[in-house]
Write a structure and sequence with these properties.
heterodimer; A: alpha/beta; B: about 260 residues; mainly alpha; MetI-like fold; globular; binds adenosine-5'-triphosphate; binds magnesium ion
């Protein structure tokens, strides 16, 4: 039997901040998690529980108080372009055009190569014709696509996405989810995707990690073995969704249960 | 709206002119002149021939002093905002020099630069004073502009391993640009205000010299006429800067209007 080494490995991640008054705020409580190469994993949890913090540690923007994240068996020390973070609020450069934004991380390639790569991702995100547009001329959904394209263009094998669709309207989110799954399949990336939307997590993920209230510990890891695109009426889909609601202490309409 | 704005502006200006006229009624040229005497003085200056030469001399000095201040002040300000090491090295010096009025430097400037001839005698001392007057607001603006850059943009650069000149020119400078431009506009205003003082000593041309010279000849009508010219050119320069500022901002969709 071949033992598959995980792509990302969280080993006993602990994180606490010391507040100004000296009190210690524990944010993450011994998080252990393995993520396989090419897997799409969603992290759900209540607001303020430490989801962004966990993602920042995985990417190397923040050091854990103790424990270690390993990527391809190498401890994460600082961020690099093999794993790109996508922000909760859009961070496309407003002063660069769409194609300049997408080409931003492409330094060590020839201009022709760069042009080809940029063009490829512009087509992938469906923004042909907007190459020379500035972000202010784009809708929120288009800007988020540019951000995703910029991340992909530098050729990472992992995407860390922190509620990337959080600021979009319902219909745009639905469309973006489908497109994101398409991109993930085409590009074969490993994706760690934070959301507080349970439905979103079940529509996207291979596995859903449920975090507890702060300090965040892993409450459950739920497998989503359903064919894509996900059928939102499938009883199995609904069962998994409700199971995650249960783990989050919500009733089956997503409303907080009385006694937790 | 636009019509009301212009109308009220004209009303305010007319009221001022009326009060000025009444307060200075009966004054001659050796006293505080009224609006009519000032207008006559303006015509005399404009037709006398030297006015255009003086305007050019003054604008020339301000542009040089200001441009040098931009060339030095923006990089220094950016560096102070960017590098803690550089800030600790330079900031005490900057803060120590800042409270000294540029006019206090006048004797030193004339002593050092007075003998040197460039465009015409003593241009350099006036340029030096204007440089001093405008560099500090520029440094301050550039420093706080860098400190105010949204960290998410810097994190994108870190994440994609983009560094060096590319970060400077594609992230830091454009992100800091709106605030730097506001600082430049402020600095140009200060430079123009300081000009008259800078041309008080050791120069033989310019609007500041005109004021000083007319005073010595007891021609107060020409003093006030020169003040009017200074006002008009000052507003023009500010208008140009405002235009540059706005066009730079609108290109990134963050214009005020
Ligand atoms: N620098 C810091 N110092 C102190 N406390 C911090 C710091 N950064 C984050 N925290 C705390 O850590 C907790 C987790 O923050 P985090 O941003 O990871 O939450 P989140 O799960 O992403 O929330 P949301 O769903 O609202 O985005 C919060 O309670 C926050 O107050
Ligand atoms: Mg968050």
């Amino acid at each position: 039997m071949i033992v598959e080494t995980p792509k990302i490995e969280f080993r006993d991640i602990d994180l606490h901040f010391t507040a100004e008054d000296g009190s210690v705020i524990q944010v993450l409580d011994s998080v252990n998690l393995n993520i396989r190469e090419g897997e799409f994993v969603c992290i759900v949890g209540p607001s303020g529980c430490g989801k962004s913090t966990l993602l920042n540690i995985a990417c190397g923007f923040l050091k854990p108080s103790s424990g270690q994240v390993l990527i391809d068996e190498v401890p994460v020390v600082r961020p690099n372009r093999r794993r790109v973070f996508i922000f909760q609020d859009n961070s496309v450069f407003p002063w660069l055009t769409v194609s300049q934004n997408i080409g931003f991380g492409l330094a060590d390639v020839s201009p022709i190569e760069k042009e080809k790569t940029v063009q490829r991702y512009i087509e992938m995100i469906g923004l042909s014709g907007f190459e020379h547009a500035y972000p202010r001329e784009l809708s929120g959904g288009m800007k988020q696509r540019v951000e995703i394209a910029r991340a992909l263009a530098s050729g990472p094998d992992i995407l860390f996405m922190d509620e990337p669709l959080g600021a979009l309207d319902w219909l745009t989110r639905l469309k973006m989810r489908a497109d994101l799954v398409d991109i993930w399949r085409q590009e074969k990336k490993t994706i760690l995707f934070v959301t507080h939307d349970v439905e979103e997590s079940v529509q996207l993920a291979d596995r859903v990690v449920v975090l507890s209230d702060r300090p965040a510990a892993i409450r459950a890891v739920v497998d989503v073995n359903l064919p894509r695109p996900r059928n939102l009426d499938d009883p199995e889909y609904l069962r998994i969704r409700d199971e995650i609601f249960d783990w989050m202490g919500l009733d089956h309409h997503g409303i907080a249960a009385k006694s937790v | 709206m636009q019509g009301r704005k212009i109308f009220l502006g004209l009303v305010g200006l007319s009221l001022f002119l009326l009060i000025w006229h009444l307060v200075t009624l009966g004054n001659g040229r050796t006293d505080v002149p009224g609006p009519w005497l000032t207008l006559a003085g303006l015509i005399e200056l404009a037709t006398g021939g030297v006015l255009w030469r003086y305007i050019i001399a003054s604008v020339f000095r301000v542009m040089w002093g200001f441009t040098l201040a931009v060339l030095v002040g923006v990089p220094v300000g950016l560096a102070i905002g960017w590098s803690r090491w550089f800030r600790e090295l330079v900031n005490p010096l900057v803060q120590g020099l800042r409270p000294i009025s540029p006019i206090a430097w006048l004797p030193i400037a004339v002593l050092v630069f007075g003998g040197m001839t460039w465009w015409e005698p003593s241009d350099l001392s006036a340029i030096f004073l204007i440089f001093l007057a405008s560099i500090f607001p520029i440094i301050t603006a550039a420093t706080s502009a860098v400190e105010g850059i949204d960290v998410k943009f810097l994190r994108v650069a870190t994440n994609l391993e983009v560094s060096g000149a590319k970060v400077l020119f594609q992230v830091i400078l454009p992100a800091a640009m709106p605030q730097i431009l506001t600082g430049l506009r402020l600095a140009l205003g200060i430079a123009w205000v300081v000009l008259v003082a800078a041309e008080m000593l050791g120069v033989q041309s310019g609007l500041g010299f005109q004021i000083n010279d007319s005073r010595n000849n007891l021609r107060y009508d020409l003093v006030v006429a020169a003040m009017v010219v200074i006002s008009v050119i000052g507003m023009f320069l500010d208008g140009v800067m405002a235009r540059i500022e706005n066009s730079a901002l609108s290109r990134r969709g963050t214009a005020k209007r």
